[in-house]
């Protein structure tokens, strides 16, 4: 089917065009991150193409962000420390629940499922203060544990929803033959369903990773102002200032914080696509 | 030149021209000793330097980087004398985060609050500890009238100690360009209008203005209005307005708003026009005065704005930058000084915290920062010759000699107004989506009913 | 775990008693030990000043291992119960933790918020629906509603339609892998990052000054005066929505693209043989087949648009009439310290999003649930 046709050319051109407009803004920022504040304000970033090698480039923005004593290096580690457990903890919990909703029958199943999914509507801002106060009673504020649990809590609704989507569409005969073999629900879940669900688990893991990595609100609320534990989003906002003065540092800061999620996505996108594929086949 | 600068500052700045015309600094009065204090005297007895080795005082504030370094430097004498450690943690989003910290139950021991309104909020929630009598006595002795009041909450108790402060209502201009055009500093509002027309006919818009400021967008407009209010209704009228006794819908307030709007909305008078003003960061507009040729000439701001000038200008401040106070509107009122500054408040009640706060009432706590530059201090007993630039020394002298200072109004009003409607409603008027009367009505409506 | 009930040798009474007690003891002992271990882990994670690497590793082990252990133990305990009880309790063992956590983190706060919305600013007085009447009579709020509607309709529509179109197109091009990656990439960028990126697209400088924003530079190349994009409503809201579409189209595209794989080729071939044009095939065969996926994607994005907060705050700080309900809610609660009004706005937001959830859930009716 590899014959030449105008429609193929048109399609390829359109796709190329799409790629360009989608990445142009990001490219613009990338170039800008290597320019000083004065040059940024004096001319658009596209002008650099006429002046390559003119020496107007500077690593200053990256230098200030990474090593400027604003603690970005620490913040990077902190972000890792916050994100990984926050992704890992809810996965299992959601998987168990998703399986139960999909393949077990019990009174109140429908109601509970609806409640769980309904939690998707709740804007997490309203949960901040009540949870904060609850944490206060067990002296949890300012710790990573507080954030892990919070992210797990806030992410469970989506996790359960996504995993239910997938698990409920595993072949029914598979489940039935397992039951015939005398396997308990627990065994079916651990030996059969979990391994089969790896794509869906990976898909959720990516979503949760991106979400937690880029989160600002939950981190600020539960981690506080101690620079030792702050994550990158907090430091970025702080670097720019609550009065917005040093915005040029955001140009490099944004990229510094972007690297890891992009790499994670690139590395896991295979699973990601597979994970959602099976979940949506035939609706 | 130095003399003229001082003279022009003195002549215009206060109701009563109480400052001397000589340029010698005021003689240092010895700081009161810390003996015989109130219930917070250290257990070792009434010694001037209590031994607090091993203790730590955590301090939170909004400044970072160079300023944080200089703050730490300035705290060294305290640490050396008492053995206590001062741990400063700066966060530019400090103002927003502190509330969450307080709710979470882990605020720092001492917070440097930029707004009296914020201090009053926390005080009324019972989160702050009032200053003991000996510290209040220090304030009475070492500060010009007005500072104590700005640190006092609605219950009449004093909670805040001022350290680094700023002076507002200063109009900066590029000296070289100014001299080349032969401009002279106006001493009345009308003279300023004439100067503005002169600049317009010379082909340069007079004013450099930017009000974008992240979550605080809009604050420079409030400064202009407050300065006009001070010049039209005087300090007492200003107090009544800030306290909520004079409503925003009052004709005097409306006129003040209108005076500022007349300048800002006139496309000839401001570089870039309204769209530029509302989208440009407050620190990005002033450098426009130092391009060649300047894109605009005048900047009305606080003394801290010098840190946003181009590096080359900052290196040669006294030669590159000229200043005159925003002129008087009513010659009988003159130009009362508008000030701002962080006040240190105590979220914890411990001897080392009080010792620290007491240290902040002495000029010693500012000395190293004076030399490093970028800060003004209100202490009567400070050594003005320590300032790194003549400009700063002149500003400080104004602060010290003031018969009275008035705190930045929007900072002193309740947060709902001062950090809310007073910032946001004028933006709507500026962009034309709301008329002035509605905006004033909205601001007044947001004032919390007592 | 098979119940080898048929093979247990018969025991004497004494042995049975000892075995019984032993079993009970173990049943009590194991959970207690497990609980202690978990609790110790919890305390360690909370209080330890140990090296971050250690803490994170412990967290991961505790997170997966601990949680797994909880389930294993709970399941093991349940299996000791008689069958009838087992069947009744086991589902709750599976579902319980998720449900409990969600209740604590979202359901209870939502209920608390509902109650607070009926109180005054500091929660000291009951004022009924005053906060709601205030909201609906407040011009700022009316603008916020208008904006949210714009976000909902334009954001969802464009993200989904573009995602669909691109998914179909890209799969037929040679650069499908590259295109999919690059178009999805914006999702990996935080809102703060996105706001800086787009600042350099919308930036405005006065006429005659060099433009640093892409749009105004393009206008300038055609000799048109620069436009202040972000200060004029409702254009500014629409431009902010563009940022959302930029980010969410990739999401829609990837999911729909996966669903497209599931469309049977034979069906499409049959259509082509019957002489249908590509467009007809698309409209009559492809779209209906993947319709449920499209609905899922659309509703997910719809929920996102109604909750939008970061983009508005980062780009315009809800000035210039760009405010939305979520930003107003934040302002009331955290700038104005009016918990009651903030809560009322949150509830209104919640109610607004609920129909979308219901529409989404309806799909599941066709399935097992």
Can you give a write-up of this model?
Chain A contains 13 helices and no strands. Chain A is an all-alpha fold. In chain A, α4 packs across α12 and α6 runs parallel beside α11. The C terminus of chain A is likely disordered. By secondary structure, chain B is α/β, with parallel strands linked by helices. Chain B has 2 domains: 205 residues, Periplasmic binding protein-like II (D-Maltodextrin-Binding Protein, domain 2, 3-Layer(aba) Sandwich), CATH 3.40.190.10; 200 residues, Periplasmic binding protein-like II (D-Maltodextrin-Binding Protein, domain 2), CATH 3.40.190.10. In chain B, 44% of the residues lie in helices and 11% in strands. In chain B, the strands form 2 sheets. In chain B, strands 1, 2, 3, 4, 8 and 9 form a 6-stranded mixed β-sheet that branches. In chain B, strands 6-5-7 form a 3-stranded antiparallel β-sheet. In chain B, α18 packs antiparallel against α19. Chain C starts with 12 loop residues before the first helix and ends in a 7-residue tail after the last helix. Chains A and C meet through α1, α2, α4, α5 and α6 of A and α1, α2, α3, α5 and α6 of C.
Please write out the topology:
The complex is a heterotrimer of chains A (283), B (450) and C (369).
Chain A: H1 6-32, H2 37-42, H3 60-67, H4 72-103, H5 109-118, H6 125-137, H7 144-167, H8 172-180, H9 185-196, H10 198-213, H11 217-223, H12 232-240, H13 248-280
Chain B: H1 2-13, E1 56-61, H2 65-82, E2 85-90, H3 94-104, E3 110-113, H4 116-124, H5 133-142, H6 147-150, E4 161-168, E5 170-174, H7 175-181, H8 189-201, H9 219-242, H10 251-264, H11 273-279, E6 299-301, H12 311-314, H13 317-320, E7 321-325, E8 337-346, H14 351-360, H15 367-372, H16 390-401, E9 405-407, H17 409-412, H18 415-430, H19 436-446
Helix pairs in contact in B: 1-16, 9-10, 18-19
Chain C: H1 13-47, H2 52-79, H3 83-116, H4 130-137, H5 139-171, H6 176-184, H7 191-202, H8 214-221, H9 235-261, H10 265-273, H11 278-306, H12 310-316, H13 325-335, H14 339-362
């Amino acid at each position: 089917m590899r014959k030449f046709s105008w429609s193929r050319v048109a399609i390829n051109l359109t796709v190329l065009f799409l790629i360009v407009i989608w990445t142009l803004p990001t490219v613009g920022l990338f170039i800008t991150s290597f320019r000083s504040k004065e040059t940024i304000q004096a001319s658009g970033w596209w002008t650099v193409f006429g002046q390559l090698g003119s020496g107007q480039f500077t690593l200053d923005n990256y230098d200030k962000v990474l090593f400027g004593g604003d603690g970005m290096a620490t913040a990077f580690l902190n972000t890792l420390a916050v994100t990984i457990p926050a992704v890992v903890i809810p996965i299992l919990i959601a998987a168990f629940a998703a399986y139960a909703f999909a393949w077990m029958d019990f009174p109140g199943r429908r109601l509970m499922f609806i409640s769980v999914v309904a939690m998707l509507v709740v804007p997490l801002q309203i949960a901040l203060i009540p949870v904060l106060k609850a944490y206060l009673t067990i002296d949890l504020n300012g710790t990573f544990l507080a954030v892990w649990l919070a992210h797990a809590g806030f992410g469970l609704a989506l996790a359960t929803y996504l995993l239910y989507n997938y698990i409920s569409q595993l072949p029914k005969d598979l489940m039935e033959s397992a039951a015939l073999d005398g396997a308990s629900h627990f065994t079916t879940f651990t030996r059969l369903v979990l391994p089969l669900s790896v794509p869906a688990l990976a898909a959720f893991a990516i979503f949760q990773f991106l979400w937690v990595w880029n989160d600002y609100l939950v981190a600020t609320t539960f981690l506080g102002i101690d620079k030792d534990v702050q994550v990158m989003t907090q430091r970025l906002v702080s670097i720019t200032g609550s009065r917005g003065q040093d915005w040029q540092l955001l140009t490099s800061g944004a990229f510094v914080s972007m690297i890891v999620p992009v790499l994670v996505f690139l590395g896991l996108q295979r699973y990601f696509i597979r994970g959602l594929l099976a979940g949506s086949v035939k609706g | 030149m130095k003399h003229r600068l001082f003279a022009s500052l003195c002549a215009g700045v206060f109701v009563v021209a109480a400052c001397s015309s000589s340029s010698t600094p005021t003689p240092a009065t010895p700081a009161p000793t810390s003996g015989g204090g109130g219930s917070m005297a250290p257990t070792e007895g009434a010694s001037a330097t209590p031994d607090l080795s091993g203790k730590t005082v955590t301090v939170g504030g909004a400044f970072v980087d160079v300023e944080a370094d200089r703050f730490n430097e300035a705290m060294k004498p305290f640490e050396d004398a008492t053995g206590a450690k001062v741990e400063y943690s700066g966060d530019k989003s400090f103002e927003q985060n502190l509330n969450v910290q307080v709710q979470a139950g882990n605020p720092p021991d001492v917070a440097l609050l930029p707004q009296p309104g914020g201090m009053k909020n926390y005080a009324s929630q019972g989160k702050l500890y009032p200053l003991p009598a000996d510290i209040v006595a220090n304030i009475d002795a070492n500060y010009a009238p007005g500072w104590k009041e700005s640190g006092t909450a609605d219950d009449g108790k004093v909670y805040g100690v001022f350290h680094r402060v700023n002076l507002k209502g200063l109009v900066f201009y590029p000296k070289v360009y100014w001299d080349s055009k032969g401009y002279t500093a106006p001493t009345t509002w009308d003279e300023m209008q004439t100067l503005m027309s002169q600049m317009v006919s010379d082909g340069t818009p007079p004013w450099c203005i930017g009000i974008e400021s992240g979550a605080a967008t809009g604050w420079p407009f409030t400064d202009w209005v407050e300065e006009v209010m001070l010049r039209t209704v005087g300090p007492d009228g200003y107090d009544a307005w800030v306290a909520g006794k004079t409503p925003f819908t009052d004709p005097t307030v409306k006129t003040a708003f209108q005076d500022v709007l007349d300048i800002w909305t006139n496309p000839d008078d401001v570089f870039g026009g309204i769209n530029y003003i509302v989208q440009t960061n407050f620190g990005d507009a002033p450098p426009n005065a130092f391009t060649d040729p300047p894109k605009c000439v005048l900047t009305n701001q606080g003394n801290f704005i010098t840190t946003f000038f181009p590096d080359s200008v900052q290196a040669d401040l006294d030669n590159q930058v000229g200043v005159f106070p925003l002129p008087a509107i009513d010659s009988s009122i003159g130009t009362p000084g508008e000030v701002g500054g962080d006040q240190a408040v105590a979220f914890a009640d411990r001897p080392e915290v009080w010792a620290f706060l007491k240290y902040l009432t002495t000029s010693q706590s500012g000395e190293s920062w004076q030399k490093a530059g970028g800060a003004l201090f209100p202490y009567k007993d400070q050594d003005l010759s320590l300032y790194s630039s003549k400009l700063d020394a002149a500003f400080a002298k104004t602060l010290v000699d003031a018969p009275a200072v008035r705190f930045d109004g929007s900072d002193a009003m309740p947060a709902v107004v001062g950090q809310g409607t007073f910032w946001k409603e004028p933006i709507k008027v500026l962009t034309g989506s709301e008329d002035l009367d509605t905006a004033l009505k909205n601001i007044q409506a947001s004032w919390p009913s007592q | 775990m098979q119940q080898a009930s048929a093979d247990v040798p018969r025991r004497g009474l004494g042995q049975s008693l000892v075995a019984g007690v032993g079993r009970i003891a173990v049943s009590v002992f194991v959970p207690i030990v497990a609980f202690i271990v978990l609790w110790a882990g919890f305390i360690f994670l909370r209080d330890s000043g140990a090296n971050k690497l250690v803490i994170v590793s412990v967290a991961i082990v505790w997170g997966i291992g601990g949680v797994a252990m909880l389930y294993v133990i709970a399941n093991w305990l349940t299996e000791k119960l008689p069958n009838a009880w087992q069947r009744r309790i086991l589902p709750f063992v599976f579902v319980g933790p998720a449900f409990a956590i969600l209740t604590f983190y979202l359901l209870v706060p939502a209920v608390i918020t509902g109650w607070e919305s009926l109180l005054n600013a500091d929660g000291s007085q009951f004022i009924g629906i005053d906060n709601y009447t205030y909201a609906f009579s407040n011009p700022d709020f009316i603008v916020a509603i208008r904006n949210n509607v714009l976000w909902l309709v334009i954001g969802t529509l464009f993200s989904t339609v573009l995602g669909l179109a691109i998914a179909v197109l890209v799969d037929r091009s040679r650069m499908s892998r590259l295109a999919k990656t690059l178009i999805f990439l914006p999702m990996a960028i935080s809102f703060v990052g996105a706001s800086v990126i787009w600042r350099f697209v919308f930036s405005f400088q006065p006429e005659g000054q060099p433009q640093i924003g892409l749009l105004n530079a393009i206008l300038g190349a055609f000799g048109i005066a620069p436009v202040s994009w972000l200060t004029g409503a409702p254009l500014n809201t629409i431009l902010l929505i563009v940022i959302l579409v930029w980010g969410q189209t990739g999401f829609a595209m990837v999911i729909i693209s996966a669903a497209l794989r599931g469309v049977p080729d034979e069906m499409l071939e049959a259509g082509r043989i019957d002489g249908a044009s590509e467009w007809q095939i698309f409209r009559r065969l492809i779209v209906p087949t993947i319709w449920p996926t499209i609905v899922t994607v659309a509703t997910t994005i719809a929920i996102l648009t109604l909750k939008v907060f970061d983009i508005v705050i980062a780009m315009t700080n809800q000035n210039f009439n760009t405010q939305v309900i979520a930003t107003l809610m934040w302002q009331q609660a955290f700038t104005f310290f009016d918990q009651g009004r903030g809560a009322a706005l949150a509830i209104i937001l919640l109610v607004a999003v609920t129909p979308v959830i219901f529409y989404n859930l309806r799909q599941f009716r066709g399935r097992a649930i």
